[in-house]
Amino acid sequence: MKTIKHITILFILLATSIVSAQVKFEAKVSKKKLGVNERLRIDFEMNEDGDNFNPPSFKDFNVVAGPNQSVSHSWVNGKKSFNKTYSYFLAPKKQGKFTINQATIEIKGNTYKTTPITVVISKAVDKPNDPNNPDISIEDNIHLVAEVSKTDPYLNEAITVVYKLYVSPNTGVSNWRETDSPRYNDFWSQNIDIKGLKILNGTYKGEDYRYVVLRKTVLYPQKTGKLEIEPLSLDITVDVPTNRRNIFGERLMTQANKTISAGSRKINVKPLPENNKPANFTGAVGDFNFEVATSKQALNASESLQATVTVSGNGNLKLFELPKLSLPSSLEVYEPENRDKVSTTIKGMQGKRSQSYTVVPQFKGKYPLPSISFSYFDLKTESYKTLSSKELIIDVLEGPTNKESATNNAITSATNKQPVLGNDHFAFIKTKANLVSTTKKNFFKSTGFWTALLGPLLAIPLAIVFRNKREERLADVTGNKIRKADKLAKKYLSEAKRTLGQKEAFYVALEKALHNYLKAKLQIETSDFSKDKITQILNEKEVANATVLEFVSILKNCELARYTPITQVEMQQDYEKASKAISEIDKQIR
């Protein structure tokens, strides 16, 4: 009996060892020698399903993608086979010799480990040459292209950049994100919203591809000469075919991550011609119409009318100054109100800009509005054009007569006549001395006496009223906070206010004031922060979202002001917005 028992135990142990020997768990790499600019693929394969998979740390690599999991079942000659793989794509951090440590997994209650693998990382190679590396397939089948509408535009002429992602028919892209976005230095730029990405068919270098338009941007160059359009870079997840096939003979797919770039583009910006350039040209480039109109041509004194200067059409509408309206000095004129209705499409800016002047005549009469002109560079004819408005007459029907004007006219009409001396010609010579006595008056019962006597008594109730008002003011917490906020805004913006009218100095001072305010208020160094970080901090301090957006928009204006023409009125508006934003933040911040 003991012999049978021993044989049974031996048989069980032998069967267990055979089953254990059939379990495989191993690590495989795409190559053991690669350049520092290449990607390494590592697969952890098992022939039995397991749990609690633990990969190595990959401390000497950046994990670009993974883990990507794939499972396959197959039947060969009546035998079932199973394969499960965890895949990672790794980017080396530096050159050298590195060891990828063991991975572990639990299969049927037992823990299995892979064998450590050593790889050698050399200097960067010109082009990867491993045909099994999915990066090769990505480079051959996916292309990010920046299509520029014109490479030799004039200064302030609109050009478009369209970014297209081309993918070959046998490759799939499941996801992408921008890793580097172009900043368009020396350009005024506007992104065009794309509503829904559409997959289209096209060709790339003579071959059939599918493509999708990722981004459209309109650019207006603000400098002449050779300018660079920075590249757009994407990190994409791609489905690429492998050398393995399933039981039906179909090629198996795997996922890989790759960073691709559209590359930088060079354009040569031509200056506008100097020949025949009008004296009143302020940088308008495109095709425009010009008009000056009034809301009324006849009215009474002290009534108001609107005189509007309008430029409409296609071109760089936001990047030049409108002509100033010339009005007689006898008309009261207020600062103009800007009214812009400009939209940006793939063809550039279009719409209209206007300045509306409120005019209030004070005296009866007829007042001419002289003709003014507007000049622009016409891209179709490559020449300058000048448009002039009609001369308008403002007829003031009822009101007082301007006596000063009549007197001036009378003096002007008499300038050619000889002066006639009358009897009162020397009337300016005084014949009476009007002397005043110097004898001192008695102070007692004089006005000064009673003032000195009763003044302190009258001051007592005034002092009581003043003290009550002061206590009431101190008790007004909200009002004090508002007054303190306004004072703080004026303190930080004082330098910007002194430089109003000087575009560069003003916006440098304004941006510095905004950062100094946050630095003082939050005790942080904001000059190293992005606008997103500043938004996050202000939101954490419970500042209203509208106020935060206003504050950040002013910071953006400070950055863009270097490349766009700015009027005195726009500077004043930005100053007032900044003052209001600082005041609001100071009242709301927790």
TrEMBL record:
Which InterPro entries does the record match to this protein? BatD
Q: Which keywords are on file for this protein? A: Membrane, Signal, Transmembrane, Transmembrane helix
Q: What's a Pfam family in this record?
A: BatD
Query: Which residue ranges run through the membrane?
Result: 447-466
Give the residue range of the signal peptide.
Answer: 1-21
Give the top-rank taxon of the lineage listed in the UniProt record for this protein.
Answer: Bacteria
The answer to whether keyword Transcription regulation applies is: no
Please give the name of this protein: BatD family protein
